[in-house]
Amino acid sequence: QIHGKAATAIRTRFVKLFDAPMKIPDVVTKEFSWFPTPEMVLEKSVEELRSAGLSARKAEYIQGLARMCIDKSIDVTTLDSMSDEDISKLLCSIKGIGQWTVDMYLLFDLGHPDVMPTLDLGVKKGIAYHFEVKDLKKVTQAEMVRLTDHWKPYRSFGAWMMWRILDITAR
Question: Which residue has the higher pLDDT, 49 or 9?
């Protein structure tokens, strides 16, 4: 996992590595931001990608995903019409992508309204605070789902609120 500010800094440095990236819609701001094409990603070396703040392993995974997009092993244009479960199965089958990454993709890229990222430490801490659970170890993935079940079908907003709780309580 990575803090949101660190992720933004890495993404910004990553995009700046490329000269003419494509425009993609941002679900949160409803504006377009620039992002490189898979072909552009493959033109960069692992070392060049690492200069954006990525680990060597992450850079290799990103290049692997770019190859899959180019050879049509995966068609990202169909993801927005798939169920969350099907997206999760597909993406988690790709080396370097786990459930946390899928949850962040569903939340921030596809804008799905009912995602509870149970592997996110920030959400877990926010839930512990909100529901007054003193022992963080007791906030298991199953317990997070149980405690937030009544938030359906808007658990994504609830997750966002749990992150904000941490911002407020840190002051």
Answer: 49
